[in-house]
Write a structure and sequence with these properties.
It is a single chain. It contains eleven helices and no strands. With about 260 residues, the chain is mainly alpha-helical. The protein has one domain. Helix 4 packs parallel to helix 7. About 40% of the residues are buried.
Length: about 260
């Protein structure tokens, strides 16, 4: 039996960077979704906040400028979901990967270190999309009616806010995980998450915080929450909040590049 020339000729060589990054991102996404604590942060807590906030809005008595609670809370909870995954989940997972030597081993693999971090970001985006789908469905079921005055501007504003918010919080999460020990990262990431959820202007408008609203609007949580509300409630692009997120993303990325320890 004859075979075509070259049928069994070896073709050694590494996979392209794009294929390696995609493979890494798929593995990272599966690990994130299989982790009960991260799944709780990513989906369960935001759903509870949204449902509880809408149901108990009348008892809270917060001034929402005449808007229905569900229309204000849903964009805020979408922002909260990004913060929970991009910051808290990434920080905790990366911190323990450093502790157990996973980061060090992956850093010595054919996948470049910047490819490893890019794979984490792509996995993060996959999980964020899943979160948004779940929360949008829950919001619509509760009666959410996003503004339709200018759909293109609303979608553009929300997409920019989500993209820049993910970049900013991911950079900050990697900064924390790359400097502190795993146990300290776990404690600090959860503490910061709770503080920003309660008083960071992410779920409720910054205007509801009185004299502190000016400071809160400069936080990444406040900027992300305001950008989402402006896009989905008022159909506008909040340029100021987006620039604040750009600033946090740049600062976080530069600090992470300088301080991240692989072991």
């Amino acid at each position: 039996m004859s075979t075509a020339a070259g049928t069994f000729t070896p073709a050694p060589g590494g996979a392209s960077l794009a294929r390696m990054v995609l493979a890494q991102s798929r593995m990272e996404a599966r690990l994130m979704l299989r982790n009960g604590e991260q799944l709780l942060l990513a989906i369960v807590i935001p759903v509870i906040v949204l449902v509880g906030g809408v149901v108990g809005a009348d008892r809270i008595g917060v001034d929402l400028d005449g808007h229905r609670p569900v229309d204000i809370l849903t964009p805020g909870v979408l922002a909260l979901a990004v913060m929970s995954t991009a910051f808290t989940s990434v920080a905790i997972a990366t911190g323990f990967e450093r502790r157990y030597g996973v980061i060090k081993l992956l850093g010595s693999s054919p996948l470049p270190r910047h490819g490893l971090l890019l794979g984490k970001v792509l996995a993060l985006l996959n999980v964020v999309v899943l979160q948004l789908v779940v929360l949008v469905v829950v919001g619509l079921a509760l009666g959410w009616e996003p503004t339709l005055d200018d759909p293109l501007r609303s979608v553009a504003g929300a997409a920019l806010a989500l993209g820049l918010g993910t970049a900013a919080f991911a950079a900050l999460g990697l900064l924390v995980a790359g400097v502190l020990r795993a146990e300290a990262t776990l404690a600090l990431a959860n503490l910061v998450y709770l503080l920003l959820m309660a008083g960071g202007g992410v779920v409720l408008p910054t205007s509801t915080y009185g004299a502190a609203s000016g400071v809160i609007s400069w936080l990444p949580s406040g900027a992300l929450g305001e950008a989402m509300r402006e896009a989905l409630v008022h159909a506008t692009v909040d340029t100021r909040s987006l620039l604040v997120l750009v600033g946090w993303a740049i600062v976080g990325t530069l600090l992470t590049a300088r301080t991240f320890r692989w072991e």
